[in-house]
Amino acid sequence: DGLGPMARPAEKPLRFPVLKVLCHEEAGTVVVGRVETGSLRTGSKVAFCPSGYVADIKTMRKNGEQVSEASGGDIVSVALGDQIAAEVLHRGMVAGSPSSDPVAEAETFIAQVVVLDHPGCIRSGYCPVMVAHTAQIPCELEELQSIMDRKTKEAKPNPEQVKSGEVVVVKMRPRRGICLESFSAYPALGRFALRDHGRTVAVGVVKEVTKRPVAKARTSDDS
Questions:
Q1: 47 near 100, Cβ under 8 Å?
Q2: What percent of the chain has pLDDT over 70?
Q3: What is each CA distance from 182 to 65, 109, 170, 173, in whole angstroms?
Q4: Residues 6+ apart with CB under 8 A from 217
Q5: CA distances from 101 to 79, 113, 144, 186 (A)
Q6: How far apart are alpha carbons 92 and 189 in whole angstroms?
Q7: pLDDT in tens, 109-157
Q8: Nearest to 60 by CA among 69, 51, 72
């Protein structure tokens, strides 16, 4: 929360993290989420990542009313009909445009992490649960790259360990598929918390992401 409110500019490419997926008797597969950037329109195509599933938006509802367009900050229900089976989509996926900066899965990323409350020391190889947008996955702190000296504010390279109250730049590797972006480009997809044994041990922001190739477009018929 200390990072302040997030801007959700409509002119940016679409980023639509999935909150939940429903199967409706009439509307078919329905995806509920918040438009973080860009906009959604009835009839437009969306691609879900990780997965590569692509579908046309049939109808949308916002606050119980049918709408034809949704923009940044709107929480909407998007009906996809029978193009994609509900069971192949899930919370934590992110929908984007297949043609404008499509969403891609993160292979590794560099983050600045503030250790808040850890009972011991954190070393390379530590693998807590990362909570980012609507996703929760295990994520390894693969390489501690530098630590901020609290007195001089200078970065010291290659620390062996970090503890509560320290700020570290770290290379991280998700252990399951997740979509992330740099905080500077897409704030809602670029900040996260690290949790271990029921408590938040650290928070961080994504500085840069090494992404996997954009998944090949497919429908439920391809699964």
A1: no
A2: 94
A3: 34, 9, 14, 15
A4: 47, 52, 54, 98
A5: 23, 27, 30, 12
A6: 11
A7: 999 999 998 989 999 999 999 999 999 999 999 999 999 877 777 899 9
A8: 69
For residue 151, the model assigns a pLDDT of 76
Specify whether the CB–CB gap between 60 and 68 falls below 8 A. yes
For the record, the structure tokens of 1 come out as 């929360």
Q: How far apart are CA 203 and CA 185, in angstroms?
A: 18
- Contact (CB, 8 A) for 100 and 37: no
pTM: 0.90
Burial of 81: CB neighbours in 10 Å, binned 0-12, 13-18, 19+: middle
Q: What is the DSSP string of 55-122?
A: EE--EEEETTEEESEEETT-EEEEE-BTSS-GGG--TT-EEE-SSSS----EEEEEEEEEE---SS-B
Q: For residues 17 and 139, what is the distance between their CA atoms, to the nearest angstrom?
A: 19
| Res 44 pLDDT > 90 | yes
What contacts 43, CB < 8 A, 6 or more positions away? 56, 57
What share of residues in the chain are helix, strand, coil (percent, to 5)?
5, 50, 45
Question: Is 51 within 8 Å of 126 (Cβ atoms)?
Answer: no
Structure tokens, 114:
């503030």
Q: Which two tokens stand for residue 134?
A: 């609507």
Single-letter residue type at 222: D
